[in-house]
Amino acid sequence: MEKPVIKPPAIRPGDTIGIAAPASPFDQKAFEAGVAVVESMGYQVKISDHLFRRHGYLAGSDTERAELLMKLFADESVKAIFCARGGFGSMKLLPLLDFEAIRAKPKILVGFSDITALLIAIFNNCRMVTFHGPLVTTLKKDNGKSCSALIGAISSSTPLLLKSSEPVVLSPGQASGTLVGGNLTSLCHLVGTPYEPHLDGRLLFLEDQQEAPYRIDRMLCQLHLSRHLDGVAGVILGSFEACGSLEDVYAIVKEIFHTRIPILGGFELGHGTHNLTVPIGLEAKMDTEDGSLRFAEPAVHEGH
Description:
Blueprint: E1 16-20, H1 28-40, E2 44-46, H2 62-74, E3 78-83, H3 99-104, E4 108-111, H4 116-126, E5 130-132, H5 145-155, E6 161-163, E7 168-171, E8 174-183, H6 184-190, E9 203-209, H7 213-225, E10 234-241, H8 246-257, E11 263-265, E12 278-280, E13 283-287, E14 292-295
Parallel strand pairs: 1-2, 1-3, 3-4, 4-5, 8-9, 9-10, 10-11
Antiparallel strand pairs: 5-12, 6-14, 7-11, 8-13, 13-14
């Protein structure tokens, strides 16, 4: 029997947000612009000197990046952890993390793209809700829609409701289950490891960027052949930026699932202009009739 899901404490105005760099180095200007956005929303930001290390195509060695992340989880003054950038390398941290220590001091963890590996592994191993949402270096990217959705997700005592502005029904119906997923490439790379996603009875959320349709086909085929898709209850599709024709992508998804379960596309989740925040590990219901994804309860609790 699975352990109960742990929800991290909600963030409040004036709280301190720590910045982690679990993956690639980042552009300084984009980072500073993102920090300014966080501060403008009424939060303090904690930046470690180690954040700016470089080790080839990574933001420091594996040990350094893992230690920084664990220090932020242990730091009593830090109420939430935002990731600076995705890119590459998050998977390499997984064997170095102390999941028991993370579970003992649950905190909001936000990121997407390559950070998907952390979101999934921490939910799997700690049963702690994590958050698929903007990176610090992407916060300045839109007109504030992503920022508002982020703060709503990590501070609100109201269950989240997402509706696609342009819903695409690939297969009609309703389905309920725990929402898991994120970046398709990252999910595939976890298959066959101790950190692979568990999808039976769950709503699967997928997004990606700069992957040609034949690569998306190959990745979904890998998940299918490894039997990871057999028990999926429903599918939510976010953005597929620079992935060729969106119609081609949708056709591949329909073929893989044979439209035997509800599939709903058109959500502003992932690498698009807007990147709304969704909790990974929380019960939700999807309904293709009104293009909605409704969570059963708030993603955070009021304790502090």
